[in-house]
Design a protein that fits this description.
The chain is an alpha+beta fold and 304 residues long. The radius of gyration is 25 Å and the shape is elongated. The strands form 5 sheets. Strands 1, 2, 3, 4 and 5 form a 5-stranded antiparallel beta sheet that branches. The longest helix has 21 residues. It has 6 helices and 20 strands.
């Protein structure tokens, strides 16, 4: 049974919800933006009355929006041919860039940023419409739907589903779901076609970190390690362990400056670091030092 209706939103074609902590520190403010023909209607949830009430005047648009999302105190709108940022306060419009050859695709990121689709690229911008990344995220085909599941972005492409990361930029996973067209995320991720629904369950963070370390993907492993829900002490130890393994890996790659920088930040025992290099410690003592693997034998230019 519906709890109420927004009478003026008849003919709505898309909507976006924003939830933010209340200024009082208690509870949250919930805002709803509804696209109706060539205008945006803004509402705020009123808990006392148990309904959404109008929040300011309607915002006029030059065309009908195909997709919208909140971007801080603005609304990012995807029209058929271009993206535009609309200020909720005053309705000022800022044209961004063309959508390319395909329909507009928008996904929310951290800190009010958004990623906008343009053909095979997703371009990240902030609430002022300024790019936040030097390079766009590139997909193997133009995605027609995106969803953010920290720290990943999941894209529905014509033939596959791709899971990618912004920092570092990498393809994490690719798999097929027959004719998948829609995606949404909460505790789990749901992907749907016109006739089927799939539930995707992320692998537990600690297991992901273990696998990433084995694959030498240390930057992403560190990103995930910071998200593990555990005591501050345990989390510091987890991050330090990953960084320690990263430093050793850098040493095996002869990236000595990067390696020594991490060891210095970790306050690693100087004897441990010296022991990585041959001939600087007595052999018997060096054998007592425990490394993730046997240190590489450095000869010739490797010692420079």
């Amino acid at each position: 049974t519906p709890r109420g209706q927004l009478q003026t939103s008849r003919g709505a074609n898309c909507f976006a919800v924003r939830v933010q902590p209340a200024a009082s520190g208690k509870g949250h403010n919930v805002f709803l933006c509804v696209s109706v023909r060539r205008r945006l209607e803004i509402y705020q949830w009123n808990s006392k009355e148990g309904q959404f009430l109008p929040f300011g005047a309607d915002l006029n648009l030059p065309d009908t929006a195909k997709v919208i999302t909140w971007c801080g105190d603005s609304i990012c709108v995807g029209f058929k041919k271009e993206y535009t940022m609309v200020k909720v306060s005053g309705g000022a419009l800022t044209e961004l860039f063309p959508t390319g050859r395909h329909d507009p695709v928008i996904v929310s990121l951290d800190h009010g940023d958004v990623a906008l689709g343009k053909d095979e690229m997703s371009i990240c911008i902030n609430r002022e419409g300024k790019p936040t990344q030097k390079q766009a995220l590139v997909w193997s085909d133009p995605p027609f739907a995106l969803e953010r599941v920290e720290p990943y972005i999941i894209g529905l492409l014509p033939k596959v589903v791709e899971v990618r990361t912004l920092e570092p930029r990498m393809l994490v996973q690719s798999f097929s779901l027959d004719k998948a067209r829609f995606i949404c995320a909460g505790r789990d991720i749901y992907v749907a076609s016109e006739h089927r629904v799939w539930r995707l369950q992320p692998v537990e963070l600690k297991a992901q970190i273990t696998q990433l370390v084995q694959d030498k993907q240390f930057e992403l492993a560190l990103n995930l390690a910071k998200r593990v829900q555990e005591s501050k002490r345990d989390n510091r130890e987890r991050i330090a362990e990953v960084r320690h393994l990263q430093a050793f890996h850098l040493f095996t790659q002869h990236r000595f400056e990067d390696c020594l920088k991490i060891y210095s930040e970790l306050n690693t025992d100087v004897k441990y670091v010296i022991g990585l290099f041959p001939g600087l410690l007595p052999n018997e003592f060096r054998k007592t030092l425990k490394y993730p693997a046997a240190p590489p034998v450095l000869v010739g230019s490797g010692l420079e």
